[in-house]
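Quick bug: PhoD-like phosphatase metallophosphatase domain-containing protein output formatted oddly.
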Amino acid sequence: MTKFAGEKLPTGSRYLPIILSCTLVYLASYFTLRSLAQKPTRTSLVTPILALGGLYHPAYWRLSTAGALITLVAPLLSYDFVYRAHFLHPSQHISFARVGWVTETSARLLMRSTVPDQVDVSYWPSHDSSAVSHVELSQSSLKTDFTSRLYIEDLQPGITYFYNSTAGHKGSFTTRRSKHDQKQFNLLSTSCQKPNWPYNPLSHSLAISGLEHVDKIYSSPSWTPLLRSIPWLHMFDDHEIINDYAPSSSALSDLFIQAIDPFINYQQAVNPPPISLTQPTYFRFEIGDVSFFVLDCRSWRSTQPARPGANSTAGFGNRTMLGESQLTAVKEWAEEGTRDGKLLVLVSGVPITRNWSEGKDEMDSWAG
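Here's what came back:
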């Protein structure tokens, strides 16, 4: 991270020009030494080592050339890591569909298409291909980055449905089993996914270990029919914006504004209905006898305090992680769930553990 207006901001826009400048300085010095080189003379054993490290010496010009090429590999790989996906896998015109929140009788689908015409979606149960229903997809626009949400209702529990659209989307989803048959279910949780990290120049630039091509995953061949048919729910957290984000300066506020739009358009749009329309990034849902509350630990937390000493957040119990409205909603959810005998699951992007409140993570903890 780099400091800007007293805050942490992404460093990519700063370090890449530095890397390029250093590379140009090195090349200039290398060719200057080469042009000024005198008659080759053998020197100490250290000289060939320096030549292999990229320093030009006429007596070891082959080693110097090899060293220069090796030295140039690092900046080239840096630019490959940053720009290969951008130029080789552009996403402006991707078209995809994915499944969001699914209940016993309804399903939410997100579709992206740059087709200017009205898109018609057909869907039918797997056991009866003649029972086709039709619905028009709301017109997409640049404002939503050409994404549209589709709500399908009046479905039957525990049934697989197929769908296709006039824009080329196709896939399937399965409605939830009847409530009395929801004693067992599976959830998969994942976090902090970064394409091609740790970096491997031989890997696909959008590859993620265990789940291929996330971000532009929706246009990737690895975005399989199975993945498209699984309901995906998303929570809002710091990596939508910047690591360990907390509201503070205007610079970070601008980042927040840029980050919240794609989250709303691509993720929240087909999440379970939000508790508050004015604060749509936290929500609750139930599966059988289990009740979930997914927190937003970023948007309404208090400004980070000054640090008077090691491992001290200086909050003195006066700071808030959730804000007043969200905290009230959590309390109501807990009281209601306890009264109804539900198993309560509170989903937090910030670990509620002591070790997270010390060391380098203390400013991103619940402490204070």
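Actually, after a second look the formatting is fine. Residues 94-179 form a domain with the Immunoglobulin-like fold (CATH 2.60.40.10). Closing.
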